[in-house]
Each structure stands twice: as structure tokens, then as C-alpha cells.
Specification:
7 strands; 8 helices; disordered N terminus; alpha/beta
């Protein structure tokens, strides 16, 4: 059911639908969640983050390493693959759909990935309060919900005000990487981020090159099959000094 928007100052970029999970997915929450899923104090909604809740990455991961955050990790294909390929870095998957979280945990466990944690929460709240300032070396936003109907575009994640939220969580020189298969959303992303004083372009030309660290997923193949161009963007967090 939809989140109670009356509790939030801004519309959320998702509609949370309930659905029956498979036995394997239920088992993932019973057996794997204690390791992979962060226990986050809530505020006013089931995906909210209490304003006083804080994540200590060094304590959670047991080391101090670059932290890469994926917003809207879906089924987890991209972040599980990346975490397996980069054992030197730590990864945080932010997702609100429980079936996707379950699949991510199952695949991570199967691959022996231990440098990954998941959080079931509204992404802007994770970036603005849960993470320490400048904690992330990269933030990834791959194929966010395009909210393609005109009356719904106000719910897009990347809109006015979002760059400052993402910039808070990124270290100086950190990277914000984005990809979408919706042209008008790509144009909006570029316009919003080009105007943000916290970021500078990390690509030449009209669009960025495909990010090597992003594996090809079924979702991306579906967009390509429908004839949509995949647009990549990359922005660097400018120095706070």
C-alpha cells in the first residue's frame, strides 16, 4: 500500500506495493537479514529513518574502506556483482521493495559476498541523516522510476533539491553516477545537476560513457529491446573548502 505522504514534507519517489514472497524470500529474511539488513530506527512511516539514527560504517563493516551506495538497487544484480568484483570496497544497497531485498540477500549469500549491507528505507533520508557526512566515495542511481506521466514527474528522485542531499553524503571528489533509459528524465537529471554548485561534470560531450562498473541487467536489456537509448551521467563532488 502507498506510504502515508501526509507524514513527509516531500513526495516519495516510489509507491510501495505489498506482495506475497516466495518461501526462499521469506527464508532470506529469517536467516540472512540479521547479517545483511541494517536494523534502522523508524520515524513516521515504515520506510522512514529516525532523524537521530546514524550509521557507523567502520563499525558495521569492521574496517575503513571506500563506501559505495546504490539507490534503488532493485533485485540487487548490479550491486552484488560489483561487491563480488571489489572486495576492497564496502557497498550499501538502498531499496524499499522487500522482494528485491530478499533476492539481493540470497544472491549475495550464494556468491559469498560479505562486504555488502542493505537498508530498507527512503533514499533521501539515508543520504541526508543516516549516513555520516562525506561517508560515501560513490553514489549510484541506475534506472530510477521515471514517473513518465507528466502529473507524476514531481515524484522523480533526481529533481531540484536532490543534488544537495546527495552531495552531503559524498566525500570531496566523490562520484555521483546515474543511468536511465528515459530521454526526458536524462535531460532533467543533466539540467538539475549542471546547475548544482556542489557538482561538476565528469564527462565530455553530451552524455557520459557507459560506466564499466555497471553490469548489464535484464532491466537494461529490456529498455534496449524497446529501442530506448541508455544515458549515463557522472558528476564529481566539488571540494567543500
Amino acid at each position: 500500500m502507498p506510504e502515508p505522504r501526509i507524514f513527509r514534507d516531500e513526495p516519495v519517489s516510489f509507491v510501495r506495493r505489498s506482495g506475497r514472497m516466495s518461501e526462499a524470500q521469506e527464508r532470506a529474511f529469517d536467516e540472512l537479514a540479521p547479517f545483511y539488513l541494517l536494523d534502522v530506527p523508524r520515524h513516521v512511516a515504515s520506510t522512514s529513518v529516525h532523524p537521530e539514527a546514524r550509521l557507523d560504517p567502520a563499525s558495521e563493516y569492521g574496517r575503513t574502506s571506500p563506501l559505495i551506495v546504490e539507490i534503488g538497487s532493485g533485485q540487487g544484480h548490479a550491486i552484488v556483482s560489483a561487491a563480488a568484483a571489489r572486495p576492497d570496497a564496502d557497498f550499501l544497497a538502498v531499496e524499499v521493495f522487500r522482494a528485491g531485498l530478499a533476492r539481493t540477500m540470497l544472491d549475495a549469500d550464494r556468491a559469498g559476498v560479505r562486504n555488502l549491507r542493505l537498508v530498507e528505507a527512503n533514499a533521501p533520508e539515508v543520504l541526508s541523516t543516516l549516513l555520516p557526512e562525506a561517508a560515501a566515495s560513490e553514489v549510484w542511481i541506475f534506472f530510477p522510476d521515471p514517473w513518465h506521466k507528466k502529473r507524476h514527474t514531481k515524484r522523480r528522485l533526481v529533481r531540484a533539491g536532490f543534488p544537495a542531499t546527495a552531495a552531503r553524503a559524498l566525500e570531496d571528489g566523490g562520484m555521483l553516477r546515474l543511468a536511465t533509459d528515459w530521454e526526458d528524465y536524462a535531460l532533467q537529471m543533466r539540467e538539475v545537476l549542471d546547475e548544482a554548485p556542489e557538482f561538476e561534470r565528469a564527462f565530455d560531450g553530451e552524455w557520459g560513457e557507459r560506466f564499466d562498473g555497471r553490469v548489464m541487467t535484464a532491466f537494461e536489456r529490456k529498455g534496449i529491446a524497446k529501442g530506448r537509448d541508455i544515458r549515463d551521467l557522472a558528476y564529481r563532488r566539488v571540494s567543500r573548502a
